[in-house]
Known about the structure:
Elements: H1 18-28, H2 71-79, H3 87-119, H4 128-131, H5 144-147, H6 170-173, H7 177-207, H8 209-242, H9 246-260, E1 271-276, E2 281-287, E3 297-302, E4 308-312, H10 315-340, E5 348-355, E6 363-371, H11 372-377, H12 400-407, E7 411-412, H13 440-454, E8 456-465, E9 468-475, E10 483-490, H14 498-511, E11 515-520, H15 526-531, E12 540-543, H16 545-555
Parallel strand pairs: 2-5, 10-11, 11-12
Antiparallel strand pairs: 1-2, 3-4, 5-6, 6-7, 8-9, 9-10
Helix pairs in contact: 8-9, 9-10, 10-12, 13-16
Amino acid sequence: MQHPSDGRxxxxxxxxxxxxxxxxxxxxxxDEDEPPTQEPTEQLPAPRKxxxxxxxxxxxxxxxxxxxxxxxxxxxxxxxxxxxDDPVAAHGRAAALTHHRxxxxxxxxxxxxxxxxxxxxxxxxxxxxSQLRSYRPKPYPDAAPDAEPEPAxxxxxxxxxxxxxxxxxxxxxxxxxxxxxxxxxxxxxxxRALREWRTRQADLADSGAVAARQxxxxxxxxxxxxxxxxxxxxxxxxxxxREAEPAAVESLLERALAAAxxxxxxxxxxxxxxxxxxxxxAVLDLDLPPLDTxxxxxxxxxxxxxxxxxxxxxxxxxxxxxxxxxxRLALRALQAADAVDTDDxxxxxVLNGWLREPGRPPRCLLSxxxxxxxxxxxxxxxxxxxxxDDGVYADAEHDESLLRLxxxxxxxxxxxxxxxxxxxxxxxxxxxxxxxxxxxxxxALLVRAVLTAGGLADWSVRLRGPAGLVATAEGQPDxxxxxxxxxxxxxxxxxxxAEEIATLSExxxxxxxxxxxxxTCGRFTDEAVxxxxxxxxxxxxxxxxxxxxxxxxxxxxxxxxx
Length: 562
């Protein structure tokens, strides 16, 4: 039997009740705010069909909950639609993010300013006198065993009888009955006090007080012995330091450098030391901080379209701040090495500042070659103030730390963020360097020491630089180098040409000197050697690298490597 499409056999249309329709729409996530297209016709409910026996009775459906505005966002979320973002709220969130990021950048600037201040603080001298230890005994907390000594008979003995003759024998005085009575009573009191004292001592021994006191005394003796042994070992190290033993000098230097680093422990800048006993020069390798220590941004700003973009600082300011920090760390290391050398063992200090980045070879950003006289006349501690009057960082060209570092004949890279590195004056790889590995200061000291041992005195350095030195000296008439000399020594490996020999001859005539000496770590060309055989250049003497090594070994016992 076929039924009409309306669902009833008699053709009558079935109309759903409003409560059931609203419940169905609510389950499907439809919007109830839309008005119905057709008002439902109120009709009588259809008669219920009889249920089979045993079918559970359905619970009556609850009436639909009235719709509220608070339900609409939730229904939209279930249906997959999102409300349009409020422009005012989005702008507020972007402004808050800009402010938060700017505060973080300002904190980085404050940390840099604090690092610059602390890096400029003077370091305390870590010499041997300051490292000596002293022993101060600690008293035992309970001094009961010492507070009550053993009772002595002198405290109980009665006085001598009055009116007795001092010259009378003692046996006559002992016959006095009153004195004998007092003497017997005193002995009884003394014996009673001894018994009580021994009982208390036994009680203390049983309670562990005596053992505890003995342990305390043994610990104090161990402390005193440890302090004495440390001071003895320190005195032995001092003796080795005065004799310029490399291990003792390097140990003292690295201890002083580690103590100087304590003011900026949050910015590790380790420094290693190698002592060259041949030239009495300390070579320091300083690890410079990473480049991102200096903030590259000045803050953040909000653009017109609501985006947050960074505000970059000028590259020149970033470079200047990093060089300023590196210069202060280098000056602090030089000050620590100079302050610890109270026995004048060091003749000079070479410091190299290295930047070590992952995946790249180390780059030397600064190198200092200073002798002891230069360190003594240079104030190595810059002023703690690094900000200008207007609150911005001072110009690097007028920064005190960089000016003092350049006064020590330092070479500094102009751009630490680029690939511009400098050639270090000396390396810390070998304690016995080759002649070409000597720094300019070491080379100048070596030339002067060799020629002074040969007989030249009254040195007057006219010019000194990375390439070598030019000086005049006087030799006694009875010495091996008599007369007035003009010395030109170069530390480069380039061969000396004939033009340089001619230039030295002119300098000898202008100075009114007797002879000229041309020294080089390399060699001379054949033309230069032939030129010295001519009559007008016969007063010029030549010493190449092999000759310098032989003179150093003969006069100074310095076995320089080839």
